[in-house]
Amino acid sequence: MNPDTVHYLNMFLGFGAILLQIFSVATLGILFFGNKKHPILNFLDKHFLIIGFIVSLFAMVFSLVYSEVINFAPCYLCWWQRIFTYPLVLMFAIALWDKDKKVLRYSLPLLVVGFLFSIYQNLGYYFGEKGNTPCDSSGVSCYQQLVSEFHNYISIPMLALTVFFALITLCLVVHFRQKHIAQ
């Protein structure tokens, strides 16, 4: 793939990730410190299944674009995160089809474990020793800077962390909204 095209893809995904991070933090602020009847919370609660499906689908598609089209080999931590991301697409699709918000019970454990892997990878990526030394026998380094946009803030590990964070935020909104409505 053309390097300019890859750069524009990185910028597009990076800008989207930053917006998603800002929106997720603002949503958590509203959820825990604001009005429980806020229109944003109502919107997210009402469209939880389609938003969860779209975010998880984008995560799966673009991780495959990076590895299969652009040929960035995923490290073993990326593979672990994929293990916890890819089933979410199918889970949200089935839940969307059945209009079943109980998908929250099954998706949240996958999200939390994937989020923990992502935090671990980001800590090593941003604060560990830099280098291209392979992390395992595959020859791929978890810390190789294949994507580095917005002054090294956006990377492949940060994109994964953003997806997990946004989906966990979405699940928390639905969970706490259900509790609020039940009271």
Explained architecture:
The chain has 183 residues and is an all-alpha fold. It has one domain (3-182). Helix content is 74%, strand content 0%. It has six helices and no strands. Helix 1 runs parallel beside helix 6 and helix 4 packs antiparallel against helix 5. The longest helix has 31 residues, at 3-33. The protein is globular and about 45 Å long. The chain starts with a helix and ends with a helix.
Question: Any key phrases for this structure?
Answer:
single chain, 183 residues, mainly alpha, 0% strand
The domain count comes to 1
Helix run count: 6
**Category by helix and strand content:** mainly alpha
**H/E element order:** HHHHHH
Number of separate strands: 0
The residue-averaged pLDDT reads: 88
Terminal CA distance reads 54 Å
Helix content: over 70%
Major β-sheet annotation: none
Please tell me what the overall shape is.
Answer: globular
Strand fraction:
under 5%
C-alpha Rg, in Å?
17 Å
Low-confidence stretches: none
Structure summarized in a few sentences:
This protein has helices at 3-33, 39-46, 48-69, 76-98, 103-127, 156-182. With 183 residues, it is mostly helical.
Task: Show the helix and strand layout.
Blueprint: H1 3-33, H2 39-46, H3 48-69, H4 76-98, H5 103-127, H6 156-182
Helix pairs in contact: 1-6, 2-6, 3-4, 3-6, 4-5, 5-6
